[in-house]
Amino acid sequence: MFKMIRPATPEDAKACVPLIDIVFEEMEIPALMKLPKSQLYPVFEQTFLLEDYRYGWPQTFVHETDGQVDGILVGYPHDKEDHIDDVFQPLLPKVGLPESSELFPDTETYTGEWYVDTLAVAESAQGHGIGTELLKGVEPLLHKRGESLLSLNVDQANPRAEKLYTRVGYHKNGELMIGSHRYNHMIKEI
């Protein structure tokens, strides 16, 4: 079995979109939930190709097992947060939302952090340590880019995820509201 973690490429769109969709399903955005995957995924694939978008390929790392993408970690530095979704705005009508909609209106990062926005593992690959491998595996890649402080937010209603993050070295340094949920903000120095 061959495993690797690497930066995503535009060619990973079809493999990454179902994993990104896990996040959108958890967000329970009614307009997106109404659309069939056959209509939604082509739009998500188009946004994956946008270099400056939150879920664009340059912000994504993939975990591969035997050549198949089975996990992703998506993140970006704090200084990009204010405009990380701007390029998606014109595509919102394609998913049934007004162009003026804001999917992520809340501040999720703090100055100096590289923010782990999304960690997702294919359902068929869950329980095999891929989330842990991604969290640990991106650290040297990010350190080479000059990053020294990672952060993430974990829903207080998800103690299992918080346990994973604690186990790989993150610790709580605050709380914040994202949407209607309270989150623990966690950091890790690398």
TrEMBL record:
Q: Which GO terms describe its molecular function?
A: acyltransferase activity, transferring groups other than amino-acyl groups
The record's listing under SUPFAM superfamilies reads: Acyl-CoA N-acyltransferases (Nat)
Q: Which UniProt keywords apply?
A: Transferase
InterPro entries with a match to the protein in the record: Acyl_CoA_acyltransferase, GNAT_dom, MshD_Acetyltransferase
The residue ranges of the N-acetyltransferase domain are: 3-190
Q: Does the keyword Transferase apply?
A: yes
The name this protein carries in UniProt is Acetyltransferase, GNAT family protein
Organism in which the protein naturally occurs: Lacticaseibacillus manihotivorans DSM 13343 = JCM 12514
